[in-house]
Amino acid sequence: MYKNKRRKRLNVKIVVTVSIVVVFLALAISVHMSRSNFFGEGIVKDIVMTIDKIVMYPFTALNGEKDVDQTESYLIQKNVNTSLEEEIQELKDVLELNRTLTEYTPINATILSRNKSYWFNQIMIDKGSKDGIKEDMAVVTKDGLVGKISRVYRNSSEIKLITSDDVNYKVSVTIQTGNGDSYAILNGYDSDTECVMVTGVDKMSTVKQGDTIITSGLGGMFPGGIYVGVVQDIKSDKYDLSKTLYIKTSQDFNNIHYVTVLKEKE
Fold first, then answer.
1. Beta partners for 177?
2. Which one is the CATH code of 82-161+254-264: 2.40.10.340, 3.90.1720.10, 3.30.450.20, 1.20.120.450?
3. Which of 125, 193, 220, 266 is buried most, with the most CB atoms less than 10 Å from its CB?
């Protein structure tokens, strides 16, 4: 009996190891290929997502056996259970957010993966073209703007975060001050302060710490009125021609599990 159980655990470990190697190889191919869409990239992404689910299945089955040491499977699952309560709260927040989105059809999605090399640039979700996802759709949580859809595959999509270091990624925002609204561009992320930056603000602007930043709706990419954050710090450029605002968001970009994609109602 003991030998059978030991042999069974060994077989599971072999299957898991081979599956993980396949996953990492597929991810490496997709990361190191040109960032433009290459032929078959969508198929590769979908295969990776499917394999990821298959890889996790043996862990679930292993946990179902009463006589098996739970320590190994617990570690392999990357401490998923430690964040269970937070994820449940996130799900409740998503449901509450859906009730407030009357102008859009919300598409709720789960985060599939994040690449450490692009941790603050992009994330992968489990919804794609078959779910109605399209490029440039805004992505939010109850805490405000997260980013936009940058690439779409059949069963998954990539989100470019507002914390991205892409200099060409700009979001038109409104600065709500005590003397009226003014417009500027959200562009960039400061890892030291963990703030997104709003640049090109007129030096004569009356903006102050604590003022609220929301999306302006200008340019047509993002809907207007989505919360971004509040002004934490203000700095002038070296020529004293404009100001840069450091915006503290309510969103913890290190800890995102669920998001909502905003689809315009047809």
1. 180
2. 2.40.10.340
3. 125
Domain boundaries, the chain: 2-78, 82-161+254-264, 171-248
pTM over 0.70: no
Buried b (16+ CB within 10 A) or exposed e, 248-263: bbebebeebebbbbbb
Q: What is the residue-level pLDDT of the chain in tens, covering all 266 positions?
A: 545 555 555 555 565 565 565 555 555 555 444 444 555 556 656 665 655 555 555 544 444 444 445 455 544 454 545 554 565 555 555 555 555 555 778 899 999 988 888 888 999 999 999 999 999 999 998 889 999 999 999 999 999 999 998 888 999 999 998 888 989 999 999 989 999 999 989 888 889 999 999 999 888 778 888 999 999 999 998 888 899 999 999 999 988 888 999 988 77
Backbone angles phi, psi at 12, to 5 degrees: -65, -45
Segments in the chain forming alpha helices (H): 2-32, 41-63, 70-76, 84-100
